Amino acid sequence: MKDELKEVGGRRSSLFRFPQEYALGRVVLILMVFLLVTGAYYFFLGSSNWNVAQVALGGHLAAGVLLFPAFFAYLRHHLSWGLRISSRNKRFRCVAWTFLLLFVLALLSGLLNAVPFFLYLINIIWFPSFQTFDLVATVHLYSGLTLPLLLWGHLRLTVPFGVGKPSDIVSYLERAEFDPKKSAP
Amino acid sequence: MKTKIRRIFKVIGYSALLSGAALAGIHFLLPEPESVDVAVEDVPFYQLPWGENPFFPSNMRTVGGNFIKPDKLPSAATCIKCHVDQFEEWAVSLHSVSDRDVIYDKTVTHNEHFDRKLGAERVRFCEGCHSPGQMAIGGVNRVRSVLPSDAATEGLTCVVCHAVTEANPVAGNGAFTLNLGEGRDHMHHALIMASPRDHARAFGAKATKALITQSEFCGACHTEIYNPAMTKVQGVAHVQTTFDEWKKSWYAQQGVTCQDCHMNYEPVAFIEKLKKGEITKPTRYSHAFVGANYLLVETSLDSDLFFLRGGVLPGLTGERYLQILEKQKQRTHDFLRAAAEVEIRDAFLAPGKQGRIAIAVKNVGAGHNLPTGVGDQKHMWLEVTVKDANGKTWLHSGAFDADKGQIAAGSVVWAERFFDANGQRIMDHLTFNTARVDYTRPFIPPRGEDVVFYDIALPQHARPPFHITAKLWYRVAFQEFVVQILKTTTTIPPFLLAETERQFAPISERAN
Predict the structure, then answer these.
(1) Does any CB of chain B come closer than 8 Å to the CB of residue A51?
(2) pTM of the entire structure?
(3) Distances, alpha carbon A122 to alpha carbons A102, A113, A116, A118, B82, in Å
(4) What value of ipTM does the predicted structure carry?
(5) Among 3.30.460, 3.30.160, 1.10.287, 1.20.950, what is the CATH number of A2-183?
(6) What is the mean pLDDT of chain B?
(7) How far B45 CA lies from chain A's nearest CA (Å)?
C-alpha cells in the first residue's frame, strides 16, 4: 500500500515530492504563520504599544519580502505535480485554487502597501491616498486572515471531507483510498 | 507519509507558538512610548496669576491640562518630507507666520510692556491663537524656562490644527482643545510609509476629522471677545465676530463653510459661482488659507517681506519662498477683488443747485462682514471724485496722502475704534488699555450693502455732464499703528478693492 502511495502518475506521492520542495514548503509555512501572527498583532493590538507594533510591522515586512521568492519557488514545484492529481476532487480543486488566489492576493496587496516603504528607503517619497491604502490594507487583512482556513481546507481535502483530525488524514492517506491511475494525466 | 503530514502541523504549531511568544515577550519588555506631558508645576517659575488654568486669559486647552515637552512638538519641517505641497501651501499663508510676523510680534511686546505687572502673562490671550505651540510647551511666561522648539515658532503649525479635538466658536478667544499627547507619530517614518495607521491616529483622529472641516473650528479663534481679564472693558466687548457674521449669513444657510472659500484651490472661481447661487463643494482643500492680508505677500518688498514675515521658514530657501509667495500674492489680490463691488446708484447733479450722489458699497463675495477681523486696523474707505466737463474737480472725498499715509478728514471709513478709559482713541492696537469699542459705521454684512450719500453744492459755472468715479480702498493698518509699533514712517500702500465710474447729466437734460 505504501509503495502505491509513492507513485502517482509516475511521481512520488508524498506531499513534498522533492527534497528542495520539502525545505521550501517548510520555509513558506513558517513565514506564513509568522506573517499571520505579526500582522494580526499589528492590526488588532498595535495601538496598545506602538513600540512593539513597529517591531511587529518591521518583522512582518521582512518576512513578507522573504516569502515572495520562497512561495513562488515552492509553487513551481508544488503545481508541477499537484495539477496531475488535483482533478480527482472538485471541491479540492475549488479550495486549492481559492487558496492560491487569496495567497497571491495577500502577497500582492501587501507588496503594494509596502511600495512607499521601499521607496522611502531609497529616498523617494511617494504614497497613494489614504483611501487607496485603506482599501488595499483591507484586502490584505481579509485575504490574509482567510488563508489559515483555506490551508486547513486544502490539507483536509487532500482526502474527502469528513475525515476529521490530522491523524485521520494520515490514516486515510495510508489507506490510499483513491485510485492513483485515475489521477494520472 | 504520516510523519510528513504531522510535520506540517508541527511546523504550524511551533511557528505560531514561537512567533506569539516572541511578540508577547517584546510586548512586556518594550515600554510604551513615553508620555510627552509635562505637569504645569514642573515648568520652573511658571506664573499662574489667575488660578490654575495655565493658558488663561486665552480659552485654549490641552487634553489633561498639561504642557508638552518642547522637543516632542512636531515641526512643520518634519511634515515637509512627505507633504511638500501642503507645506508650501501653508508656508505662504498667514497661519505659518501668525507668531513670527514682526508686526504681530511687536504689537504683543508693546502690550506686554504696557502692563509691566502682568503683561507677560496677559499676552497668553493673544498667543493662544497666534502661537498655540508656544503656549503648549509653557513658553509664554515672564521667565522663559523651557527649551526652544521649532514648532513653537511656527504659529498655526500642522500639528495645531491636526490635533484639535474640540472647538467653541461662541466662547472664542482660542477656545479649542489640543490633544498633543496623541498628536504625534510613534513609529519610524519608514514604517509609517508602509502603514500610516499610526499617523492617521495621530493626525486624523475621529474628533479632529469631524471638526476640521467645519466653520466652528475656525470660529474658535476668529471670535474675539474682550473682557476685564485682558482689557479695561467693563463687561464684554465683541471685537472680532467673523464666525458670528458667517453664522447669520446666506452662506451658512447654504452650508458653505470658511474652508470652502479660504482653503479652495480655485477660490475666485468658487466665489463667482456662489454669486450666481451655484454651490459646488471642493473635493480637495488647499492649505494656503488665502485671506485679506496683501501686505505680507507683497513680493515686491523682497527682503523686507522676509523681515515682515519673521524670516524664512525652516524647510524653505529664500528663493523658493519668494516663488511661492508670488502665487499667493496673485491669489490674495484676486480673492480680495472678488469680495466687493461699488455701484454709483444715482446722482442728482445740476449747476447752481444742491446735488446728491448715492453710492452703494456691496459685499458680494465674502461670507462675513466687510471688513472683518482686526477691525481697529483693517479698514476700508471710499474715494469719490466728481469732475465736470472741463475736468474741474468739484468733490474729492477719501483722498489718500501716500507720503503721510493718511486718509483725508471727513472721508467715509469702515473701521472699528478702540478707546481707552479716558475716551482717547487707541490707534496702536493696545488691547490691554482698551475700555470701549465702537464702529465708524456698521460693517457691510454678507450679500449686503451700505449706501453712502454725498451732498455736493455745484456752482452755476460747473459744466455738465459730470463724471463720477468711486473707488473702494482697503488697508491692513493705520499709519499711526505703523509709526508706533514698527517705528517707521514707511507708508503701507492701500489696496484697491473695487472701482467704478459713471457720467451724469443734469436731471433736466436726462429727461430729454
Answers:
(1) yes
(2) 0.86
(3) 30, 16, 10, 7, 14
(4) 0.76
(5) 1.20.950
(6) 93
(7) 34
